Amino acid sequence: MRVRVLGCNGGIGDNRHTTSFLIDEDILLDAGSGVTRLDLDALVKIDHVFLTHAHLDHVLALPPMLDSVLERRERPIVLHATAEVLEVLQRHLFNWHLWPDFNCIPSKEAPLLVYETVAVGQAVRIGSREITPIPANHVVPTVGYLLRGSRGSVIFSGDTCSHAALWDIAKATSDLKHLIVECSFPNDMREIADLSKHYCPATLSSDLAGFRPDVPVWLTHMKPGREMDIIVEVDDLVKGRVVQTLREGHLLEI
Asked: Predicted confidence band at 239 (pLDDT cuts at 50, 70, 90)?
């Protein structure tokens, strides 16, 4: 399994893109503006999209992507998300007001988009790959994902603040090769981080203190212009481990 970072920022501007990962050539994990870095041939190859939640920075590229590939696909794209997320998208996005309902285009019998409900702890197997939703703690229904390939696993926290389940699962995943965890705000914005249920260095460092030192930790979803502040604060608070910054174009192989 190859996990390519298309977007990993908490905003846009100056070549920043919001969250999206391309798994091999056929799976998207979230559909933020990072998807726009793909050419049309790459977009056509995407058969599955897994969403963490319905916030715009994680879904904004999905509607124009569907429009772009409509005439070039012979089978539907499967959208995997929790029941709560699918309900939001059907009611507020693919509703003919904001965007056409691709669940009945080009026809109800043969739509471009089909929905598959996922549940926490229930793995979805696509070929040799397993994608399992894991708990997250955010202001709207949200999950992270445990990705398992032939050589190990990667955990992506999704948008979240502190919660024990993430770290319990990470510690229990014996073949874990990488942990990607959000850290959206610097400590001087902790009030906003807490209100919006995101990590800041103070809260993340507390949870990292008991985590295995052998697993590389990658920071993602940092707010534009505050990346260096967040990195410095995490480095100051976390002792005895290297915490790295995820970059667009980065490739993880598992």
From this structure: confident
User: Is the pTM here over 0.85, yes or no?
Assistant: yes
Express each pLDDT in 143-186 by its tens digit: 999 999 999 999 999 999 999 999 999 999 999 999 999 999 99
Residue range of the domain that includes 65 = 2-253
What torsion do the CA atoms of 149, 180, 54, 48 make, to the nearest 10 degrees?
A: -20
Beta bridge partners of 134: 144
Number of domains in the chain: 1
Per the rule left: phi > 0, alpha: psi between -120 and 50, beta: everything else, 194 is alpha
The CB density around residue 198, as the number of other CB atoms within 10 Å, is 26
Helix (H, G, I), strand (E, B) or coil at 93: coil
CB 103 within 8 A of CB 114: yes
User: Angle between the 227-237 and 201-208 helix axes, to the nearest 10 degrees?
Assistant: 40
State the CATH number of the domain containing residue 208. 3.60.15.10
Distance in angstroms (rounded) separating the CA atoms of residues 202 and 234: 8
Of the candidates 115, 130, 40, which has an alpha carbon nearest to the alpha carbon of residue 76? 115
**Under 8 Å between Cβ of 20 and 61:** yes
Average pLDDT over residues 46-58: 98
- Rounded Cα distance between 47 and 234, Å, is 37
